[in-house]
Predict the 3D structure of the following.
Amino acid sequence: MQELLYTMALTRISNFNFATALALYQQLGSATAIYEHRNNIGDVISDCTPRLIAALKDWDEPMKRAEMEMEFIKKHNIKALTPASPDYPQRLTECCDAPLVVYFKGNADLNNAKVLNIIGTRNCTTYGQDLIRRFCKELKEMCPNVLIVSGLAYGVDIHAHRQALENNFETIGVLAHGLDTIYPSAHRDTAKTMINKGGLLTEFMTMTKADKVNFVRRNRIVAGMSDATILVESANKGGGLITCSIARSYNRDVFAFPGAVGAKYSEGCNRLIRDNEAALITSAEDFVKSMDWQDDAILQKAKQQGIERSLFPDFTDEEQAIVGLLNKRNDLQANIIAVEIGQPINKVTALLFQLEMKGVVKPLAGGMYHLIK
């Protein structure tokens, strides 16, 4: 609990210098260690700036503020998650400017196997609304267990959340303010529904106003916690384009729906596609194929046809050894599998072929094998 308080206080001291705060946290291993070295941090971290050295000497106000926030989150059943927490969105830990603390109210798994964000203009047209409606409906049929993320803003964001709920997806709204309010207030009812079917996430403490700069900060979380970003509609400038740029910097996949030439709210999408900064998609099928999420689609289709995995042929002991290994550590090369299960490579190759014929594994590039779960 004390470590959490120190981490929350550190976010106040760092004043949203995300990369510096995260680097300091990672180098010393904990916020507690930073606190313990607050008076000699320059001796421990050689490249620590004079400004940060001075800031780290005064923890009184930040600790008081952290204690106030702790009371609020306890009262309102909110989780405060740090990079050391198993529930923290682990994809964010790959980002150099990840938040040290995120506050989460909801029931979704932030580390869902498949996470995408759907973003775009606040001036979503009928065309954009139709794209979102059709995409979510098609995606549900192909990949029913996707977590859909957006920013709860007007336009594309709120339509994405509502269509996610309509199709029984869990959906996360990433906020540009604390969890003591909802902005815009017109989305309050949707936000309440999302708490029971997804959740609300923010790095901001209570009493934080929804200032313009906070929306840009929010966008990096939307991009970083997702496997892919989908831009539905965007003018030539806008927050959606910023999120796409951030996503690319994190080596995330970026997709965009094309629009008519000259259409104001398709200019941004068309430009990204033209400049090879986003892949063109026209349907959920395009997206699923590009992301190589077909496994879910195949299994879902089999279930719809009444074919359950339990009805597949029984495995031999050797096949079961491979299936068990891939279930724990998926995407392994045949020679690694051979070593792990103690079988010669020629036999393992034959076994993998048999499992492939049963629809249980599939070969990937580089001689890897993937268990279809």
In short: Confidence is low (pLDDT under 50) at residues 307-312.
